[in-house]
Amino acid sequence: MTGKLNRRQAIKTLGIASAALALPAVSYSRVLGANDRLRVASVGTGGKGWSDLVGVAASPAVEVTALCNIDSSKNHLGRAAERYAAAKTYSDWRKLLDNSDGVDGVIVSTPDFMHAPVSLAAMQLGKHVFCQKPLTHTVFESRQMKEAAQRNKVVTQMGNQIQSHAAYRTAVALVHAGKIGKVKEVHSWQAGTPSWPRNIDRPTGEDPIPKTVAWDLWQGVAPRRPYKTGLYHPFNWRGWQDYGTGQLGDFGCHILDPVFKSLELTAPLQLTAEAPPLNPETWTESATVRYVFPGTKHTSGDTINVTWYDAAGVRPPAEVTAYLPKSYSLPNAGSVLIGEKGTLVIPHVAMPKLFLTGADAEATIEEVPSVDHYVQWADAARGEAETTSTFDYSGPLTETVLLGTVGIRFPGQMLKWNAEEMKIPNFTEAEPWLTKSYAKGWEPAWV
Ligand SMILES: NC(=O)c1ccc[n+]([C@@H]2O[C@H](COP(=O)([O-])OP(=O)(O)OC[C@H]3O[C@@H](n4cnc5c(N)ncnc54)[C@H](O)[C@@H]3O)[C@@H](O)[C@H]2O)c1
């Protein structure tokens, strides 16, 4: 990420979080009852935002009142405005929030680097927030999201919708039922090859900005750079450090989610990454991150190792597959939990496979049905349900994932993590990467 803070500035910024803890909540949301409709705004109505919006609006108790997109073309603002014709439309989310009396909840489906600025501003106005994964672009922002949600007493949900799918819900239930006994170690991986740019330099030159695109608004809090066709907006921003979080950030909040949920993990004690040298602009083509967490009631030791691998075709090593029948092939992405009584494979995304120690065949499992991740948020905002990926939960999950992206900057260097103080006491050189600088005039209002 260009324009990073120097260490002194970073620590000063991080200090704001704890100093501000004493401040009162700034706003309260309208109290809704069973007969009230939830008035929803969507920021980022194209790409994943389209299915987020349609998913939430599937609830008969939801009314879509505002839509925002920096791109007015058919696939971005166009089709949403057509489908929800009564909604007010905006290109600038700040204007939407300035006129948000008729909005109770905001769906934030922008690229990663804009999640926290939009969500924090919405929560500070007392709006309930559904925000895509990873919750934020930096570790510091994740902590802010959790604190802002608590302070403003709003209903939150991160968009890691697979958490609500039968596949992940069944996996969590199997671990909680003790089917594999206490868990000894975990290996999680993503072997796919992304289509978005990795390990490349910033291109030179500039392309004409399409008439439908407000490029300055797209860049938002990020440092300014010229528009290039097809390299950033839409979708390909993922590979660029200024905007995205690479393969770990893109998939970690999905694949590590049932690991976090089932083992009730919180913050890691330390992590060590292995990765090729990082280009200053883009994320690496592969990474391994070895996390050590404090043990929980679901783990066998005082600590538990959770290892993440991403690389084309990668799988956990032979020591891990030795726990599985020879006839079984691991899926392209997922997790293996090795327990005292058996091994659980959680494919991304399919029903888990349970292998009890000493048995050749897969054990039968009882499926836990899916619930609707999107409608659950709308129902919870109306006091009718509870969300499961609240920012209390998804903040620490995202902090862990993004700590891995900090580790990728310092391959081979073990980083100790003091979660409470947000410090890396054994290697303070890494601390500036817990946060970043913001474009002038776009600085978020921190909690
Ligand atoms: N949960 C999932 O399975 C899943 C799947 C895909 C993407 N995602 C997440 O969804 C988010 C969006 O990803 P995507 O692939 O749809 O990206 P995208 O670039 O394809 O779409 C983003 C949309 O937001 C709009 N937008 C961008 N900046 C905006 C701003 N400042 N204000 C208003 N609108 C803005 C764009 O025009 C576009 O319509 C990311 O955080 C991504 O990680 C989640």
Automatic annotation (TrEMBL):
Any coiled-coil regions, as ranges: none
Signal peptide: 1-22
Gfo/Idh/MocA-like oxidoreductase N-terminal domain: residues covered: 38-159
Domain spans labelled Gfo/Idh/MocA-like oxidoreductase bacterial type C-terminal: 207-291
Alphabetized GO MF terms: inositol 2-dehydrogenase (NAD+) activity; nucleotide binding
Listed Gene3D superfamilies: Dihydrodipicolinate Reductase, domain 2, NAD(P)-binding Rossmann-like Domain
SUPFAM superfamilies: Glyceraldehyde-3-phosphate dehydrogenase-like, C-terminal domain, NAD(P)-binding Rossmann-fold domains
Alphabetical UniProt keywords: Oxidoreductase, Signal
Annotated gene: iolG_18
Organism whose genome encodes this protein: Bremerella alba
Source organism, top-level taxon: Bacteria
Protein name: Inositol 2-dehydrogenase/D-chiro-inositol 3-dehydrogenase
Pfam families: GFO_IDH_MocA, GFO_IDH_MocA_C2
Enzyme Commission (EC) number: 1.1.1.18
Record-linked InterPro entries: Gfo/Idh/MocA-like_OxRdtase_N, Gfo/Idh/MocA_oxidrdct_glycsds, Gfo/Idh/MocA_OxRdtase_bact_C, NAD(P)-bd_dom_sf, TAT_signal
